[in-house]
Amino acid sequence: MKIAIVILNWNGKNLLKKFIPSIIQYTDSKYAEIYVADNASTDDSISYLKEHFPTIKIIQNNVNEGFAKGYNEALKNIDAPYFALLNSDIEVTENWLDPILSHFENNPETAIVQPKILDFNNKQFFEYAGAAGGFIDKYGFAYCRGRIFNKIEKDKGQYHKNTEIFWASGACFCIRSKIFKELNGFDERYFAHFEEIDLCWRAKNLNYSIKYNSESVVYHVGGATLKVSNPKKTYLNFRNNLYTLVKNLPKKNLFSILFIRLVLDGIAGVIYLFQLKPKHTFAIVKAHFSFYRKLSENLKIRKENNLKKEKYYATKSIIWSYFVSGKKHYSDLD
Predict the structure, then answer these.
(1) How many CB atoms lie under 10 A from the CB of residue 91?
(2) Which of 11, 123, 157, 212 could form an S-S bond across to 43 if both were Cys, CB 3.0 to 4.6 Å?
(3) CA proximity to 7, closest of 83, 65, 82, 94
């Protein structure tokens, strides 16, 4: 086996029922095996899999501790050169694995590969979580080739070229197993959201390469587990983003960047109030309290990291570019 396809599941019977068939259909068992890592589901996901898809290997986690720890625990039980971590709401396409495997085997410096991620419900458009590969700005705000904030681009072949990116989406995250282990996997404190960006940044700090491969195409539903409207999602995104900055920012201007980011978060909280979404404002406040409470812990982790990557951003401020300069597409950015 060259690659293990690992799908994390939590009470996702309906998603498994809908998307597992395409994964089986377009996966060659000669070089790949399919695993479902179950996060202590309380529905009948596992019995359904055993009855209808007996060839799929099942790893049972004892408790649901989110995306990060769920994968960390499951991958300890799998021996393969490469891991392909798939969300349960991903539809794959014919030969989707071939370009990824070829890229790994012909580019030893590449640690992580992301395919083109399109919207399952509108297949001519990129999907929010990953699109054609991710970047962050100076203050840690994430954006993608094909998606800036909520502006989603139509796929016209404008991002067909395979290229270096800063982060790969956790929706379809392909990584060399030895590097995943070298990095000690995802930060389990994150639970969910931003853990793949943190891991990618840590890989970059070790001078590993992260690539986008447009020849591999998948379709993603997005938001199947935690909706954008859920304040918990807001809390996790803001908290984990701050954790990631503390752990990975270059030493130069570390605290000045953090200060500006905290101010920008405060502005976001005020905007939520004007939008009559006080629960989201409270989620940001809660995220900041967690940031302060865990600051010394994250600074200690920072000291243990190998911080080599001084140039981590391609655009200084995606907020300025988008809202002030009116640059709505990745190709418009400086």
Answers:
(1) 20
(2) 11
(3) 83
Rounded to whole angstroms, how far apart are CA atoms 272 and 258? Answer: 21
Q: What is the pLDDT of residues 5-34, one digit of tens each?
A: 999 999 999 999 999 999 999 999 899 999
Helix (H) or strand (E) holding 8: strand 3-9
Contacts of 122 (CB under 8 A, 6+ apart): none
197 domain-assigned: yes
Q: Looking at the domain assignment, is residue 200 inside a domain?
A: yes
Give the residue from 155, 186, 220 where a domain finishes.
220
Lookup: tokens for 281? 């404002």
Enter the pTM of the model.
Answer: 0.95
Residue 35 maps to a domain: yes
What is the tens place of the pLDDT at every residue in 84-131?
A: 999 999 999 999 999 999 999 999 999 999 999 999 999 999 999 999
Rounded-to-5 percentages of helix, strand, coil across the chain: 40, 25, 35
